[in-house]
TrEMBL record, chain B:
It comes from Rugosimonospora acidiphila. The keyword Methyltransferase does not apply. It holds the Pfam family Acyl-CoA_dh_M. InterPro entries: Acyl-CoA_Oxase/DH_mid-dom (IPR006091), Acyl-CoA_Oxase/DH_mid-dom_sf (IPR046373), AcylCoA_DH/ox_N (IPR013786), AcylCoA_DH/ox_N_sf (IPR037069), AcylCoA_DH/oxidase_NM_dom_sf (IPR009100), Mycobact_Acyl-CoA_DH (IPR052161). Keywords: Oxidoreductase. Signal peptide: none annotated. Residues 2-101 form the Acyl-CoA dehydrogenase/oxidase N-terminal domain. Gene3D superfamilies: Acyl-CoA dehydrogenase/oxidase, N-terminal domain (1.10.540.10), Butyryl-CoA Dehydrogenase, subunit A, domain 2 (2.40.110.10). This is Acyl-CoA dehydrogenase family protein.
Amino acid sequence: MSSLIVAPPVAVSFTDWAEALSSRAAAGEPVKCLLSARRLLDIFGPDALPALPVGKPGQWSDARWLLHASAEESEGSDGTSTWFLSLGPGREFEGSVTLTSKQAESIADRELLALASVAVGTAQRAMVLARRRAGKRMISGRPLIELQAAGHRLARVAALITQARAYLRALCRDEDAGIGAGYRAAAGAAAAAEAAFACAQALVQIYGAAGTSDAEPAAAFAACQAAASAAGAPARLWLHAGSRRPLRPTTNARSQAVAT
Amino acid sequence: MIRSTVEDEVARILDGLPPGAGARQAFAALGEARLFAPHYPEEYGGRGGTLADYAAVADALGDRGFADEVHLVTVQGVGCAVLYFGTEQQRRRWLPGIASGRTLASLLLSEVDAGSDAAAITTSAREGAAGWILNGRKCWSLHADWSSIGLCSARTSKGPNRYSGITLFVVDLTSPGITVAERPRLLGEPYFTVSFDEVAVPDDAMVGPLGGGFRVLTSAAGYERAGLDYLSRGRVWLRAAEETLVAFPQLCDERRRAGLVRLEYGLQAAHELADATIAGADDFEFDYVSSAYSKYTCGEAAQAVARWVAEELLPEPVVQTRGDLVRRLRAAVAEGPELSISGNAVDLLLDTISLDPSLGEV
């Protein structure tokens, strides 16, 4: 049987998992295995541990086994979901777990956080490429980044990425503290996706024609598009978050105070 | 000191104020409990706490609609300049009053032709018989009419470059020759112009080195760059927006609910960055790149709320039937645009972010 390393170790916090996803994406490394492992652990809990073989670093190329491990959902009429663990094509289902709607929603939220972390890391990689190019590409005898329009465009995108990363970190910390991210997970995923889309556009703009013909920027562009789309359209995610967020009547009458 | 302890205590004090209490009453009540400037050393009226304690107080004031910008300028802008660059005599003279919440202060830096360019000032100070004589005019101060002292920048010499030769003075605003004039605005609270006409200040009014005030000044304005005061405005405006949707369910469609959550995201994400900036600060020194991210995102997030209010709520005829809500929503629209120019212009912040070394080599 092929084996793979599940890094970071399965016992670490959700925050560390998200950080690992983000930093792997920022380094241009594949993240599918890590995403799959995270998903299985979220659904099946420690029961999924035997399904996650641990190998040595550098064995990611042998990771196809886990790529085929997936969870399939079956909705019950009572609002519960039963999830089946499949270990790969042609293999028998080896486990199942029945979840309440609330549990399933919570798992879906963590999935959004994981995907958003990947989107942020992917955008970060594109940003580094774009900045490097902007420092080298000469326009009318000056490096492109010295032109305010280009520098500020990159700065605005960098701010989008930084904001999304900071927000996601806070949500992951909440998850680790037992406070579910709830509707905020969809908001974070939407913001991360928008940051990645914006970064993809900026990357090509900064590179010029080379942005779609040179292998490195073209791959980064495609990766941004894919990561930004992985959780669905950002507009739909915002709607989803809005529909779940309860409206709050004012909690502080003094907010109406006039400062005199 | 644990931040949550301060938060709880501050909330108790502010929520226990009598109905209709204003900002100055709130400041004095906090000062009574040594919470107006909790990060000042105990001998100057504080609790020896951390910057995070200070931020918790600022947050609580802003969330309740009190003038947190006055708190910011008094405690952090003027008070910390004295704390870190003043003499022991100056600390003992000014800080207990500031920490008590009863001596409020203004930063007198901006001039008509030197807004964001603090080195372009023309206010001057020349040596007099027993100290210094100040002449000039400082503009765009908020709530200067509340202040009894100000930290004023003045050119004392022509240095080898434009940043040297600037000196800072703590000035008693009741001194002869000083006039504080209101400058009404079409939008928002009035500004004040503070004029100096042959104003005599003693030698010991000088804070920091002679001719070396620019360095002090950039630190004094440093905290402002975290943008926390912008955030509190944004949160107050968002609350007004949400109350409007609660009051008029017919406006509360899925698109507006999505808009609301997007605005909330912006404010919360910016708050995370502001918290990180404050946590990474070393006493009075703030990392300039981190501050730029923080201030930029705080300003953008709060402005987004103001724009949304203008586009999505105020044009609705039904909203006009609730005068109390309209007043608060209009305040957001009036104050929003200023958040991109006060303290530090957005263009300068973006310049700084574009050179962020953590984004890799250029």
